[in-house]
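User: Here's a chain of 203 residues. Predict its fold as tokens.
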Amino acid sequence: MLADDGYLIERLRTGDDSAFEELVDHHAAPLLAVTRRILRDEEEARDAVQETFVAAFRGIGAFQSDSRVSTWLHRIAVNCALMKLRIRERRHAHARIAENAQDVDALLPHFQADGHQDHSSVSWSESAEEILQREQSCALVRQCIDQLPESYRVVLVLRDIEQLPAGVVAEQLQITRDNLKVKLHRARQALRTLLDPHMRGAM
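Assistant: Prediction complete.
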């Protein structure tokens, strides 16, 4: 933990109001970016950040001194955003068809009887994650990610963008690690399919 983190935590534990304002000032922007990526709704993303700080303030006594404040807040923010996703899904369950694996099947590679792919993909010199880091491609990749079915999009965001450990993601999504691996693989393949036409145009 950074020295500044330790000082800030001690001030928070003593009820220092200025310390809480400092916590919000330093961490609100990156946390909002996290919740936006998960929720894709500005109002819900801001609510999730607010709930993150409330939860952090209430749980300050349980904060582990060997952890970084930013990592701790990031974990809380992801949990708050995922909770909002679950509430949203329950609220609209009666108005939509339940998502199933076929939603992503159309984006996965298809093969002929001889084993050859119907439409071969362009060979990329970079991974999707590397492309995402380039400012000029960021909007395109995010747009394609947003086209993925919700459960696959969330898995991709948590693992490849937020870079949370597989065990943590599986626990937060309440699925097995094997199920997570399958979903992540399919999500990456689907994203590649969506990006492929753009990559062809760039070659």
